[in-house]
Amino acid sequence: MQHNDYNESGYIHFENFFAETKLQETERILKKFHKSWLAVNAEGYKNGSINSHSITSGEFINEQERLAIFRFITQEKIKNILNSIFPAKAVFLNTQLFFDPFNPLQQNYWHRDIQYTGLSIDDQKEAIRNQNVVHFRIPFKPELGIELVPGTHKNWDLPEELETRLSLNGRKPGDSLERGKVISLDRGDLLVFSANMIHRGLYGRNRFSFDIIFCDDTPDFKEFIDPKNQPTPQELDVLDRQLFLNNP
């Protein structure tokens, strides 16, 4: 059922997916990371940043905390979903934290993650039919969530949607879209959605969400995987290594 739902719509919303005990230690580590990140990136935050990334690089957390995040990423419930929705092997790509902008008037924006890769429009159209990049979004508090356009993980934009994403013909990326569907999220939920689909984060309620990103284990994605975000050989010895780049 999961595969069919995801294959058709490009997302699955699991309510009350995580037990509270699974969230508390991860939340503590992420709050520590976020506090340190804000201290170093204060200017970028004030200039509009709404996310950070590479939590597992170890820049702002210690080795034990990094290993705890890797254990969270490799829990059985997550692996079961990956096995259900990926056509072949999936590999861990990166992590992100999403938070509200410094300026409360800052507008959110419709996008496909693939539009930032440098690919031409024609190549993007081809890639979304054959490549898989998937976000596992984990909110740590009730939030407005994400608005997405179901089915666009495999299908290209309608004219108005493309004009909105790319600011054409007077449209702006924050304008409403007729096919948009809002997915509100609560603590303990999990939203699995394709990075290739048209979507936008909804700001407000001091959101604090953790994204784990997976992609196809193919040569096309190797250049986007930073080895410093992957486990060391020593860490792999105590992890389920099948989801990581350094899996021998």
UniProtKB/TrEMBL annotation:
This protein's UniProt keywords: Dioxygenase, Oxidoreductase
Source taxon at top rank: Bacteria
GO molecular function, one term: 2-oxoglutarate-dependent dioxygenase activity
Keyword Oxidoreductase on entry: yes
InterPro entries referenced in this protein's UniProt entry, alphabetically: Phytyl_CoA_dOase-like
Pfam family name, one: PhyH
Name of this chain's protein: Phytanoyl-CoA dioxygenase
Protein species of origin: Elizabethkingia anophelis
Biological classification of the source: Bacteria, Pseudomonadati, Bacteroidota, Flavobacteriia, Flavobacteriales
